[in-house]
# Entry
Amino acid sequence: MNQLQLFLPCAAGVEDYLALEVLRITGLPPGCITKQRGGVAVRTSFAHAMLLNLYSRLAQRVLVLLSYTEYRAEPDLYRAASEVAWERWFTPLESIKVEITAQHSPLNSLNFAALKIKDAVCDRFRTVANGVRPDVNTQWPDVRIYAHLTTDSCSLYIDTSGEPLFKRGWREDKGDAPLKETLAAAMIAASGWLEGEGDLQPLYDPCCGSGTILIEAAQMACNLPAGGQRRFAFEKYLPFRKSDWVAIQKEANDAVSMPARSQKPIIFGSDVAHRMVDFAQHNATRAGVAGVIEFRGGDALQRLPPIDVTAHGGVMLLNPPYGERIDIGGVARAERPGRSQRGPSHGSGIHRPAGPQAATGTRYEDHAANSADEPTRGGRFGARELPHMDNGGDFFSQLATHWKKNYAGWTAWMLTPDLKLPGKMRLKESRRVPMWNGPIECRLFRFDMVAGSARTREAASPDPPKPDGSL
Ligand SMILES: C[S@@+](CC[C@H](N)C(=O)[O-])C[C@H]1O[C@@H](n2cnc3c(N)ncnc32)[C@H](O)[C@@H]1O
# Structure
């Protein structure tokens, strides 16, 4: 098990960051990995497969390539699958499931192809295990077998992860459109927030929903491994040595570094829907980073910076509400045509609310302490402006105006499927990174809010990092 060919699938657009992550986790030289569209291949050991499962924040799974053959029809798939020594990986007491992906396959039915592969695995076990064959379990299999078909080639993989790796084990409460943890981690990687020497800059998500971006970031900052709270399929496999795994887990635990209780948080989140803020808080607690993040309710169009960033700048990272999937709350919602200015809770109810409390999301109870004219410097979290109703009700142009006025020194990274967003915000992006949110093509736009100016800075647009770490 010292020379395995692993494949780590990831969202399109994330390959460069995943390649760097794999090198960092394994310590392997760049020559051991190959970047492919939608993933990274790496030649390495079973121990590294365990490490990658535990630490990777960007990979969807860790697969082991067990066969690569040409095929023309189903019998070729049967033959290929029956030649794999599955019995070296698991016993017939484990249940299996075969999953197929295909690109331009000439076969009529992928289901039938999967059936042939399943038959081959079971028949092989019947032969080598005295007639005993594994059961099929399509919901909770012990072993997932993946087949990837192209026009003429078939790759067979055994999955070492089990549940996909974006399931970290801490999320119970989710909002209407939660970001996958893997994509949140990709946004953080692209922003470079964790890179570089010295203290981390403050991080703020003003539309934090269930808190995914911030929880990922906080876990990274505390060196908490992504998979520290879940189990993996490899734990049931024959090459698995419990003592090796315990040693890996112990090393991971020893490397965790939580900030001192006296240290003030530098990671902040807010959302107009108070129900979301509750979700985020609960999720952060389960993820072990509740003490590291400060969550508050509030409208992104009204919240002032949670902390003074005059000295070193701050980073905003968000996937704001968009389109039909998620409705915009707060004053922009109230200003939409046909909506009562007194609050959307009295509105028509045609739009799906972002949460039961989204409709009443703008609360002003602490304005007595924070008038709009009061300076927000001094690191106070939770200062807000008085509500204002200017700018015709468009959320994004109002957000841009608000940022230009109040967020000098911050760099905002926004993930959106709206490729025209910079135009709508009348901001010039300094970088645009293509990323896919499932099937939706998105861009992660970067806007630099320049101190003392209602303009954004036009920065040179650096290329994504190369696997050798160079730019
Ligand atoms: C696409 S979701 C963000 C999902 C989040 N990243 C997660 O993983 O759960 C957009 C969020 O923006 C919030 N939202 C909508 N209008 C807002 C406003 N005016 N101010 C602040 N948050 C708002 C919604 O309540 C929703 O939680």
About this structure: The radius of gyration is 25 Å.
